[in-house]
Design goal:
mainly alpha, flat, 132 residues
Length: 132
């Protein structure tokens, strides 16, 4: 098998991956199906993660307001997660930011709608029984 070289920069030697392998190992071992992790699998997972994060950031920058501001913002990432089919699985992890006042207003509206549905359900349910 090929030998995997992973290490800190020593004398100008570059690391193969920049993410901390110990943290990635902890995340991988948190799955009950995983009992041991091969070093090569660990390095490949780290490298794949780096590529994924780089692609997400680049895509978000190009398709967001980042070009105008010359910066990548959280809203660029959340917009990408919500609008792109490729990244839609991240929508729960990168939700759009809203003000607390807007959130409370949304909750009140949902409660009001739920109460109206319950009242309509009770009214409709009683009339069905009366017709029988």
């Amino acid at each position: 098998m090929a030998e995997v070289v992973v290490g800190k920069e020593k004398g100008g030697e570059q690391r193969l991956v920049s993410l901390p392998l110990s943290r990635i190992r902890v995340i991988m071992k948190s799955s009950p199906e995983v009992s041991s992790i091969n070093q090569e699998a660990l390095v490949l997972t780290a490298k794949a993660t780096e590529f994924f994060v780089q692609y997400l950031a680049t895509y978000s920058y190009k398709h967001g307001s980042g070009k105008e501001k010359r910066a990548l913002t959280y809203s660029d990432l959340s917009d990408t997660a919500e609008e792109s089919e490729t990244f839609h699985f991240l929508a729960d992890i990168l939700p759009k930011k809203i003000l607390a006042s807007k959130y409370l207003k949304m909750l009140k509206e949902e409660r009001r709608e739920d109460e109206e549905e319950e009242e309509n359900g009770r009214d409709g349910g009683d009339s069905d029984e009366a017709e029988s």
